[in-house]
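Reposting from the mailing list since nobody answered there.

I have sequence plus structure tokens for a pair of proteins and want to know whether others read the tokens the same way I do. The first protein:
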Amino acid sequence: MHLDNIDPKPRLEAAVDWAREAGELILGYYQSAGLKVDRKSDASPVTEADRSAELLLRERVAEHFPGDGFLGEEHGELRSQNGLRWIVDPIDGTKAFVAGVPLFGTLLGLEAGPDVLLGVCRFPALNEVISAADGCGAHWQIGEQPAKPIRVSDVADLSNALFCYTEVGLFEQTNRMDAFHELRRRTRATRGWGDCYGHMLVATGRAELCADPIMNAWDAAALLPILHEAGGSYTAWNGEPTIHGGDGVSVNAALKDVVLGILRSGQIT
């Protein structure tokens, strides 16, 4: 298979369907009094909903695109036979899910060599899905309404920007509180609408930047193509458009340079 000649549309359509199916499974556990929460080695929470949804997605990939690889947060990697690899987070925002807060999402991205060809982010409890594929634009569907194209905002002054993040403690843990305080000081509002929800606020033009100092590939794979197709960017803090940088920021085009400058240095002088 020549990766340069792949039509992403069939896989995008399949991924949107799979995310809906996984979301229905997840909602069977949502706000359940009997939900059992385990702790992984890094102390982050995981539930049967995470594990079961990832297995479902893994089975769908194997059934429909048997040569594709698969990397999930909960069950590890299945090696690719054709250069394509799905990277999946069944519940991005498990802490929100466990708390009964609806701002968690199911993420699917498709990696082809150094590129990510498509991304799907579904919010099961909100019944919303945002999706994109290389060259096809980015779209947002709410419930059964027709999907509509999305664009990042055109806010060009940081003082008018909304800054989102996931956890202040992650900035402390990585010795990046200078960057957090500088962004908080220079933006009009700072909100902890984090995980994939914050990044999708940027993609849909409702926020201007969402920065996270710790990001894994499964957190980021769906985000990069969505932000790119929406006219913004998802990059590592060094500005590289990668899902493997260990940190990440989604930002509109007008503020990209100034935001990356703050993140690189910790503070603008």
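The second protein, same order (residues first, tokens after):
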Amino acid sequence: MKNLNTLAGLFLAILFAGKVFAGVIEAEGRAPLDLGSVDLVREAAIMDAARQGELQAGAKIESFISLSPNGLPLESSRLRAAGEMSKIRVVREWNDGSILHVLVQGSSDPCNVGLAGKSRSYKKKVLITGFDIPNVAAVSDIPNIWSGLPANLRYRLDQTGKFTSLTNERRIYNNLDNTQNANEIVRKQVINLAIEHESQIVISGTVINTGYRKADWMWEDDTREFEVEMNVYDGITGAKIASHRESRKAKGEVLGTPDKPYGSDAFFKSAYGKAINSAIDNITQAIETDLECLPFTTKVTRVDGKRIFFNSGTTSGVENGDKLVVYLREKDFPTQSISGRKIGGIPENPLAAIQVIQVQPLFSIAELTEESDQLKIREGDLIRFESRR
């Protein structure tokens, strides 16, 4: 415990309101009268009551505790409701001069997540780059394939509910000789793209083979290959997390036409479209598995006294009251393998605990806890929720 670089982790999952149940719930909510207009104050109070009602129906605390360099416990925690409160009606409303109170009734549905729990898992930000297609002529019959492939992967990742993703036309050029210099070039490309698009993960793809073979005989089917490779990178260090390759062979309707662009229903109903769809589906599942245990990470974008701004908000599942941990990055000392050929990452130390006080769609504001208010946090330092689920 005395080693300042030692981290101690403890995951706690506490179910404190009994089993989730369906039925009528009555809850009180509050909001300050000076929040804004009458309608705004009332809506805020109703939302607070709904949250309280959902927590009554069943909730849990997720918490991870680590040690700072000076031995202080640093806690990541968040409170999540397990059911959704619906059919809400106000049965009583009053104020005490400074606070508006509302008493509401509603029903709980344990099959849905609630206002406090719509984002039980933080969504990791993913950037999907343009796909590299070395043999351009081989795909000239498929309209929209250049933008269609990354868009298709983006849609699939977003559908998992675990990621918020975006695409970019720029490509990562990966030198196949795998030398130290080539790896370093790729690493820098990844880091720059991740910084530019504020992404935790970067994914690049290469279409290796789309070879077409016309049938020799009229009773035979035309055939066409599809082989694709995708690399998954950590945007913070540029290190490769995983690489996946899928290959398929389609028979029959394998040539594209102008009226069936990539991504259209008509294209995916064709034999070649089904083959591509199957390959992308398998890779999506593999990527989801790759990133499952990777902790949600975001970056400090601004420091204003005790207030810490970071680049994740409601779209990533961040909510008011969440507690996170800031990690100090030793920016000048990347770790390498014994051979020096691979960059393993950049050393970090847990520095301070923060609590979210304001959330916007794409950023949030948190405050340092009292025992950490003298610590020097810098733009670019990391913020994490260390769940051990």
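Reply #1 (J.P.):
I read it the same way you do. Confidence is low (pLDDT under 50) at residues 1-22, 110-120, 332-340.
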